[in-house]
Every structure is written in C-alpha cells, then in structure tokens.
Design brief:
This protein has 3 domains: about 5-130, Butyryl-Coa Dehydrogenase, subunit A, domain 1 (Orthogonal Bundle), CATH 1.10.540.10; about 130-235, Butyryl-CoA Dehydrogenase, subunit A, domain 2 (Beta Barrel); about 240-380, Butyryl-CoA Dehydrogenase, subunit A, domain 3. About 50% of the residues lie in helices and about 10% in strands. The chain has helices spanning about 5-20, 40-60, 75-85, 95-110, 115-125, 240-255, 260-270, 280-305, 315-340, 340-345, 350-365, 370-380; strands at about 130-135, 150-155, 155-165, 175-180, 190-195, 205, 220-230, 230-235. Helix 6 (about 240-255) packs antiparallel against helix 8. The longest helix is centred in the last third of the chain and has 29 residues, at about 280-305. It is globular, with a radius of gyration of 22 Å.
C-alpha cells in the first residue's frame, strides 16, 4: 500500500467497490433515509455497522490512522481517493461511521495509550459503537453549563444526571460522556470526558419521537452509574478541550456529509413541471450546486488536516453553517417546485421534498445551533470580543440556574 501510486491505489479501491458494493445509479434517487418503524431503524443501524466492518477488513477505515491502532498508516490523499470512489455507491457506514469520525480523532489526540489500544481498533471495525452523551435539558446551547455530576469513589466515578438528543443511544454499545467533576471550578474547567458502557447498571434510554416519526434521538438517564477512572479521556477536570475536538469533528462531519447532492433531485423536479427554463429557478439551482461544491471542498480540506493531526485551516463551524443554510434553501426550493403536492402528496418525489424541508431543522440545531456557532466563529476565527457574561470565571456551583 505504501508503494502504490495514486492511480494504482484508486484502481484497487474501484475494483473492490465494483465487486462488493451497489452503484448509486442503481438506487432510487428519491429514497429517503427516514425510518418511522423502530425495527427498521435498528436494521439500518446494523447494516451500516456490518458495512463498516467490511470496510475495516479491506483496509478502508482509518486509512490515514496509525497502524498501531488498527488504521492503515496511509497518506491523507488515500482517504480522499476512497471518499471520492465511495460517493458513487449506495452502501454507507451511517451512524457508526459518524461516531467513529467524531470520537476517533479525539482519542488519538487526547487518549492514553491504554485507551487507544483498547478502543480505536474496535471503533474502526464497528465491533464497538459509540453514542454521544453531551447535551442536557438545561445545557444545550451552553453545553459547558452541564449539571450531570460524577463523584469520585476510589477507582470509580459515580455518575448521576440526564442527557438528551442522543442519537442512536438505544443501539450503541458504549458512549462518550461529559460530566461535572468539580462544581467549585468555573464551568469550562470542571468537566471530565468519560467512556462508559451503555449496558452499565443505572442507564435508562428513552426514545424521542420526532416530527418525521423517527425515534433516532433519545433521552438518557444515569442513576449512580459506576465508571472506572481509567476510562477518563484527557485528564480529570480537563474534558472541555476533548469535547471541543469532538464538536469540531462533528461540525465538519455534519456539514460535509456524504448524502447524494440535493441539486440533482431539484433539477429533476424543475424539469418534470417545465420550470427548468425559468431564469429564477435556474439561478436558485445554480446557487445550490455552487454551495454543494464549496461545502465539499471545505469538508475535505478540514478532514485532511484532521487526518494529518493538524488544526483545521478554517473553523469547522463554517461548513456546518453553510450546510444548514443550504438545506433551508433546498427545502424551500423543493416546495416551490412541487407546489401543493409537495405538502400533502404521498409520491416518492413529494416524500423526498417533505423530508428535505423538515431536515433543515436537524442540521441547524444538531452539533450546535446556528446562533451559537456564529458567536463561536466570531470569537475564535475573527477575534471579535466575547459576549459580556458573568459566568466565565465564576465557580459553576454559584451560577444561577
């Protein structure tokens, strides 16, 4: 692999996909990835998990990760080539792949050698799947105000609290969890990042029904859950920096997702009702195409930097903001092109248009709301003054709630 030229490597990847995957052209372009039936959602999760295991066995997961931790030890360009080839096929790693993309770089950067050896190979192969337990009912936009507490008891932490909007928590084997370990420190400096088995006594998962009838999200209750201190990532009371690494990767992943370009379906809708010659519609379509291509470039640029162990050359929140704005535009345009049929129809085209419209909310909220991201980008990337606040240096225990 190390001696392969780019052309040789691409030929090998394409050959493997031709023999093992389904070309996207052979699939229904109007198919939507929304499962209203919980059993269908579980089946989709397990299919994604099985596909990730096959990719790992073939050497196509963690291509640029160190070989010592189950990766390929390859170059960043190899990951880019694989992504370009994989985009032409139907199979996807789904949520297991997303959690690998979020947690993996954080473990590589902040985890102990023992944790890297124990979890990274199984994360890549999807032998273990992880969900994220970050947000709480009172700590969504201001995540650092979280109140789930972890009290030290010898070699264990005893964790009690509630998390919410936890994707696929009902299916995952493990979770990465933010807890409050020092209530006397300022809110950002008393947080610890833990890995916890979802089968641990005291964990209860309750699915939440969404607007599209899916139960992808959950609320998770933790009642005196015991977690070994050895499963701390990044040091006790130092979990905020680990969380920021995860959130940066999450924003990049959400913004640079691998779903089929909406512009292709929008063009088909415009053609089907004779609006493809309308100058206003053509301009809106071109705007979507440009945004998709720019977002793809931004996502790949950020991911390449992450694979090399470097800080991204641009704030990952930028691609997430662009994706959220683009999704709002594609949903609106789909409804404009489909008309009343888009709102109440049951055809494949109408169902796709409805999902496109409703999907704007998950993109603009998930991984940090647009409003919070704009504040963060203003402060981190542009160097603008922070919003005035009294709780940056005040002990968390004294902050009114």
């Amino acid at each position: 692999m190390a001696d392969e030229t780019p052309d040789q490597y691409e030929a090998r990847v394409r050959d493997w996909y031709r023999r093992n995957a389904t070309p996207r052209a052979d699939t229904d372009p109007w198919e939507v990835n929304v499962q209203a039936d919980p059993e269908a959602e579980r089946e989709h999760f397990e299919r994604s998990r099985a596909w990730q295991a096959r990719l790992a066995e073939a050497g196509f997961m963690g291509i640029a990760w160190p070989a010592d931790y189950g990766g390929g030890g390859g170059e960043s360009w190899m990951s880019r080539v694989h992504s370009e080839v994989a985009a032409g096929y139907q199979e996807s790693t789904g949520f297991p792949g997303a959690s690998s993309a979020m947690l993996g770089p954080a473990l590589l950067r902040h985890g102990s050698e023992e944790l890297k050896q124990a979890f990274l190979p199984k994360l890549l192969s999807a032998e273990l799947t992880f969900c994220q337990l970050f947000s709480e009912p009172g700590s969504g936009s201001d995540l650092a105000s979280l109140a789930t507490r972890a009290e030290r008891d010898g070699d264990e932490f005893v964790v009690t609290g509630q998390k919410v909007w936890n994707s696929a928590a009902q299916f995952c084997d493990w979770a990465f969890l933010l807890v409050r370990t020092n209530p006397d420190a300022p809110k950002h400096r008393g947080i610890t990042f833990l890995l916890v088995a979802m089968s641990s006594p005291g964990i209860e998962v309750r699915p939440l029904v969404q607007i599209n009838r899916s139960t992808h999200f959950n609320e998770v209750f933790l009642d005196e859950v015991r977690v070994p201190v050895s499963q701390v990532v990044g040091g006790i009371d130092e979990g905020w920096s680990v969380a920021r690494t995860v959130l940066a990767n999450e924003a990049a992943f959400i913004g640079g997702g691998t779903r089929a370009p909406a512009s292709e379906n929008l063009r088909a809708l415009a053609t089907s009702n004779g609006q493809d010659a309308n100058a206003t519609v053509r301009q809106a379509l071109m705007d979507v195409v440009i945004r998709e291509r720019v977002a793809g470039w931004m996502g790949e640029t950020i991911q390449q930097a992450i694979r090399r162990g470097e800080m991204p050359p641009m704030d990952p929140g930028l691609i997430k903001l662009m994706a959220a704005d683009t999704r709002a535009r594609t949903g609106n345009l789909a409804m404009q092109l489909r008309g009343a049929e888009g709102l109440v129809g049951s055809s494949a085209e109408s169902m796709w248009s409805q999902v496109e419209l409703m999907g704007r909310f998950s993109i603009s909220i998930g991984g940090g709301t647009n409003e919070v991201l704009r504040n963060n980008i203003g402060e981190r990337a542009l160097g603008l003054p922070r919003d005035p606040g009294f709780d940056k240096s005040q002990p968390w225990r004294e902050i009114p709630r």
